[in-house]
Amino acid sequence: MWPRLIASKILKKRVGSNNFVADYPSDTETWIELPSLDQNFPSFNSDSCMVLDQEETQNYKVFVGTWNVGGVEPTDDLIIDDWLETCNMSCDVYVCGFQEVVPLRAANVFGGENKKITMRWNSIIREALNKRNRSEEKCKDVKSTGDDDDELGELPKYRCIISKQMVGIMISVWIRSDLRSFIRNPSVSCVGCGLMGCLGNKGSVSVRFRLHETSFCFVCSHLASGGRGGDEKYRNSNAAEILSRTIFPKGPSLDLPRKILDHDRVVWLGDLNYRISLPEYATRVLVDKGEWTALLENDQVTFIEK
């Protein structure tokens, strides 16, 4: 009990509580402004937000991607355009989840946020989303969104509204800059499920915000590994811990959701580590034969649903 309690306090201190980085300044102390940004953006306080008529419905397209990078730092020439499908630029919101952005050794597990690695990944995402030199042959039918910050015919600009790292788990959320006035109440909640049941080598980083009047929650997680029979119990336990322990800070609105499942839209992403409960050779044979029903019958996620 005592070791877990001490480790939990260390994690909370190292992770930085509810702080996160973002492109936009804010009046709240839970924001940390990223460097080299435009200074004329409005802050995310309630006074600067425009609210649509409750009966009006807006449709938005969201990209969600997850990548376990295996503890390897990104190279200077890393290009992620294909992953983000930036040629189409048809998404309004981009959510990028990462696992093992740092090697999972003791110094990193017990250490604080690696701001250098976070900034490198965000820089790569920014470059991919805001690149202006795409060829017309590769990127056809791209239309202007009418963003005030962009000239006619240019691709939309994207800005980071939330970026948070806990040990190897990182999530970064980007929006079209013309949507900035409709974003409210961004916040984060971290849950460690790793060593001693609480350290951040496994667990989740969850983010929430409101777009117009709809609340969104994105849960980026890295669950317990292990390919032996019964190891899925640890993954199930991690997921249950994340659901029960994720609590977002109170906001100015009394009806602001604080638990994951209380949000209007929830997306769970990450390296969940669920797998096919069959020997590798048997799995490969079924794949070669296209026996998808047999594979689904042995899918650990299917077991959970039952």
Walk me through the structure.
It is a single chain. The protein is of the alpha/beta class and 306 residues long. It has two domains: 2-28 and 59-132 and 145-274, Endonuclease/exonuclease/phosphatase (Deoxyribonuclease I, Chain A); 279-306, no CATH class. The chain contains eight helices and ten strands. The protein has helices spanning 2-15, 81-84, 106-109, 115-129, 232-245, 280-289, 292-297, 300-305; strands at residues 20-22, 31-33, 62-68, 93-99, 158-166, 169-176, 183-192, 203-211, 214-222, 265-271. Strands 3-4-6-5 form a four-stranded mixed β-sheet, covered by helices on one side. It has a four-stranded mixed β-sheet with strand order 7-8-9-10. β5 and β6 form a beta hairpin. It is globular and about 55 Å long.
Blueprint (SSEs and pairs):
Elements: H1 2-15, E1 20-22, E2 31-33, E3 62-68, H2 81-84, E4 93-99, H3 106-109, H4 115-129, E5 158-166, E6 169-176, E7 183-192, E8 203-211, E9 214-222, H5 232-245, E10 265-271, H6 280-289, H7 292-297, H8 300-305
Pfam families: Exo_endo_phos2
Family: Belongs to the inositol polyphosphate 5-phosphatase family.
Domain Inositol polyphosphate-related phosphatase: 58-305
- The count of β-strands is 10
Distinct helical segment count: 8
Tell me the strand order in the biggest sheet.
3-4-6-5
How many domains make up the 3D coordinates? 2
The fraction of residues in strands falls at: 15-25%
Query: Major beta sheet, specifics?
Result: 4 strands, mixed
Q: Residue-averaged pLDDT, rounded?
A: 80
Helix content: 10-25%
Spans of at least 5 consecutive residues whose pLDDT stays below 50 are 27-42, 142-152
Structural class: alpha/beta
Order of helices and strands: HEEEHEHHEEEEEHEHHH
Domain Inositol polyphosphate-related phosphatase: 58-305
Protein name: OLC1v1033126C1
Keywords: Hydrolase
GO molecular function: inositol-polyphosphate 5-phosphatase activity; phosphatidylinositol-3,4,5-trisphosphate 5-phosphatase activity; phosphatidylinositol-4,5-bisphosphate 5-phosphatase activity
